[in-house]
Amino acid sequence: MVTTERAERQLAAIMVIDVVGYSRLMGADEEGTLAVLRSLKNGVVSPQIAAYRGRIAKVMGDGAIIIFASIVDAVNAAVAVQQAMAKFEPRVLAHEAVELRIGLNLGDVILEGTDVYGDGVNIAARLQEVCHPGGITLSSSAHEQVKGKVAETFTSGGEHNLKNIAQPVQIY
Length: 172
Known about the structure:
Elements: E1 8-19, H1 22-28, H2 30-51, E2 55-60, E3 63-68, H3 71-88, E4 91-93, E5 96-97, E6 100-112, E7 115-117, H4 119-130, E8 136-138, H5 140-146, E9 158-160, E10 169-171
Parallel strand pairs: 6-8
Antiparallel strand pairs: 1-3, 1-6, 2-3, 4-5, 6-7, 9-10
Helix pairs in contact: 1-2, 2-3
């Protein structure tokens, strides 16, 4: 008997994490970069994601898509990851620290097995692309839900036309 999984839609908090300058780091030192990424995943990212009840949906070499049921948990996890990064100080090249960019969105996603798809994911991915190294960028839908519920405050970054996203997105 063949069983097929049915795709399921749900509202989710989506975090996309990216290692800044990954291709350049790999070009300079593949083995060193992979060792740092392993250490970073096991010592910084995974513990914070688990502490805030997130689930890594997909790993893509230098980045990951992480899903949370709560945007407050997602923002707190992002802050905890960046704070842990400041203490971790991983280096691939003697003169260059590894930094992360994090994009967060609250949106509709399609879950299929362990994978996740949809515009909500695409927006989170584009937000991390415009994020400053070592920073966190939120969509307006995420920001609206966390105002007054997290210790951090976020400032408006204005509306941005994000690659392949039909409407401009207000970022924080």
